[in-house]
Amino acid sequence: MGYDFDKVINRYNTNSVKWDKTERLFGDKDILPMWIADMDFACPNPVVDAIKERAEHGIFGYTSRSRNYFEAFIDWVERRHDWSIKKQWIRCTPGIMTALSIAIQTFTNEGDRIIIQTPVYTPFTEVIEKNNREIVLNPLKLDHKKYKVDYENLKEVAANTDVKMIILCNPHNPVGRVWSKEELTKLGQICMENDVLVVSDEAHMDIVHKGSIHTPFASISEEFADNSITCTAPSKTFNLAGVQMANNIIPNKELRDSFTNMIDRLYLGLSNTFGVTAVENAYRYGEEWFDKFLDYIEDNLAFLTEFIETNLEEIKVIPPEGTYLVWLDCRELGMDAKALEDFLQKKAKIAFDEGYTFGVGGEGFTRVNIACPRQTLEEGLRRIEKAVNESLIRVGKETQ
Ligand SMILES: Cc1ncc(COP(=O)(O)O)c(C=O)c1O
Q1: Helix axes 287-311, 374-390, angle to 10 degrees
Q2: Which residues contact ligand 1 via a Cβ below 6 A?
Q3: Which of 29, 68, 221, 379 is 20–30 Å from 200 (CA)?
């Protein structure tokens, strides 16, 4: 089946957060949106066809999830991640963030403390604070362009009796690490020893670059499976964030029953008609599209890396092992967080996700979304190049 990832699709007037909200959020309609983790590619054809067929039926009453829905997901996880999961372990929520909020409400109390490893996906901070829990930081350490877990600090903070949970980002957005089995084992053991529940957000589990392997945290051992909740969604893999569906894997019956209880209290048990159709067909028939997408992203990454190395010596690419997000070290531009934001938005007319929004360790960095046609990526990079060339930063340097 032919897929044309080079095709530029106009996304304006589709209620797209990335495109239609750009002017409101960034105050300028000419800004090129390369922020939020949402791709500018059309979904796999079998997904689009299945949604059309479902729409043709014309009746959209209360919708449940069939055995086929679960089997498509279970087979995908087995095939892509070599992990055998059972249907009864899966609990569905309208998105991963909902699952994280449910987990926090179910397994911790107000005032309890929850570990996150910054710089990390901004809503982790928000969901903890909105639920009146406290954040405990275990910032990642940057070592020669590679981020690592600070195990010594983790041991110290996890030992605190009011620390009840860690929200792990596996693979890690925004720094692109695909944590190895050894790294996860070390982290998991510290959590087990200190009674800290691991909520493993595996939103980006499928998007892994050549040479890296994603390890689902709970697949490592029965003990880890028993002390964890794994949150997954088709939103990143197949660009289906808008259908608001997530599959959460909870092997431990006691944890699962409590989680289910909260789903029931919130009346979240049913699903969106088109979401169910989309997700089942994506996991069942979307693989060919997905493999081609991965190749395209690898090429985009190579293009971006070469462009930056050749034309933007002040910016360093942190090589991602996974995700379609790239973390750029802009500290050599010599700007503080606000100046860098202004520079990118007002001068380069680019919307990236600014590093400081990802918490401690993010200042001086920015995150670019490369899940777009090459032409869009090149346009974005050229805008930065032009802005740097015209700015006093480089002029000043050259005249020194
Ligand atoms: C690590 C991570 N978790 C969760 C989400 C959001 O997932 P959902 O839309 O399913 O709530 C994202 C989206 O970018 C993400 O990067």
Answers
A1: 20
A2: 37, 95-97, 121, 169, 173, 201, 203, 233, 235, 241, 246
A3: 68
pLDDT digits (tens, 9 = 90+) for 365-386: 999 999 999 999 999 999 999 9
Q: Which atom of ligand 1 is nearest to the CA of 37?
A: 14
pTM (predicted TM-score)? 0.97
Ligand 1 atom at shortest distance from the alpha carbon of 124: 3
Q: Please tell me whether residue 368 adopts helix, strand or coil conformation.
A: strand
| Multiple choice CATH, 17-44+287-395, 3.30.750.24, 3.40.50.150, 3.40.50.300, 3.90.1150.10 | 3.90.1150.10
Measured distance CA(136)–CA(138) in Å, rounded: 7
Residue with tokens 């395209």: 296
Options 3.60.10.10, 3.40.640.10, 3.30.230.10, 1.10.10.10; CATH for 59-285 is 3.40.640.10
C-alpha 97 to ligand 1 mean position (Å): 6
Strands 163-169 and 113-116: parallel
Using the predicted structure, report yes or no on whether residue 139 has a pLDDT greater than 50: yes
Per-residue pLDDT of 236-282, as tens digits, reads 999 999 999 999 999 999 999 999 999 999 999 999 999 999 999 99
Tell which one of 173, 207, 243 to mutate to probe ligand 1, the residue whose CB is within 8 A of the most ligand atoms.
173
For the chain, the maximum distance between any two Cα atoms, rounded to a whole number of angstroms, is 70
Ligand 1 atom 2: residue of nearest CA: 203
